[in-house]
């Protein structure tokens, strides 16, 4: 029984991990290390709840919600608030930058500047083309909240991208 469960979970991880990393990288504003941590936390939670995951009507929704919850949990950690990020790690090549590498640097910086809920709303609505209802389910909020967060986020992104194009500087 446990062996079957482990094999099923292993197959699930093989089929979904790269997509999870891509989504987590977008949700963290391009922070590949934090994205990997979120994916590990998410997979751990999914393994523990594997029977419930298999019974879920919408496994994709369950997966997205677990990932967002892991991001929320991570942001609440006390040591995370005292940690300092650096722009570039000296021992890491540019080619390893992450799977969200197809994003323009200006857009990546503008996304990173958004609050986490706004960023998540934009990622799910526009990068993954989810409906307002599916996004609300993933974020655990109302559809109205998704609409307002998305509208505010798009306003901020437009302003940030307009500013960077006027100054010719990418942050």
Q: Could you characterize the architecture of this molecule?
A:
With 171 residues, the protein is mainly alpha-helical. The protein has nine helices and no strands. The protein is globular and about 60 Å long. The relative contact order is 0.12.
The count of β-strands is 0
Please indicate the percent range of residues in DSSP E strands (runs of 2 or more). under 5%
Give the helix level as a range of percent: over 70%
What is the H-and-E element order?
A: HHHHHHHHH
List its salient traits:
9 helices, 171 residues, single chain, WH-like_DNA-bd_sf, transcription regulation, globular
Write the layout of secondary structure elements.
Layout: H1 2-27, H2 32-48, H3 50-55, H4 59-76, H5 78-82, H6 105-113, H7 116-127, H8 132-139, H9 143-167
Helix pairs in contact: 1-2, 2-4, 4-8, 6-9, 7-8, 7-9, 8-9
Produce a short descriptive summary.
This is RNA polymerase sigma24 factor. By secondary structure, the chain is mostly helical. It has nine helices and no strands.
């Amino acid at each position: 029984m446990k062996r079957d469960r482990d094999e099923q979970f292993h197959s699930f991880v093989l089929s979904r991990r790269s997509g999870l990393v891509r989504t987590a990288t977008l949700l963290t504003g391009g922070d590949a290390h934090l994205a990997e941590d979120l994916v590990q936390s998410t997979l751990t939670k999914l393994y523990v709840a594997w029977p419930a995951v298999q019974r879920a009507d919408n496994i994709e929704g369950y997966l997205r919600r677990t990932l967002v919850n892991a991001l929320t949990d991570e942001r609440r950690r006390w040591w995370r608030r005292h940690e300092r990020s650096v722009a570039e790690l000296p021992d890491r090549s540019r080619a390893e930058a992450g799977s969200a590498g197809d994003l323009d640097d200006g857009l990546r910086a503008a996304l990173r500047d958004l609050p986490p809920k706004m960023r998540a709303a934009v990622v799910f609505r526009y990068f993954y083309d989810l409906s307002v209802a599916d996004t609300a389910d993933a974020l655990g909020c109302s559809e109205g909240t998704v609409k307002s967060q998305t509208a505010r986020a798009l306003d901020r992104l437009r302003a940030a991208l307009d500013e960077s194009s006027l100054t010719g500087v990418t942050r």
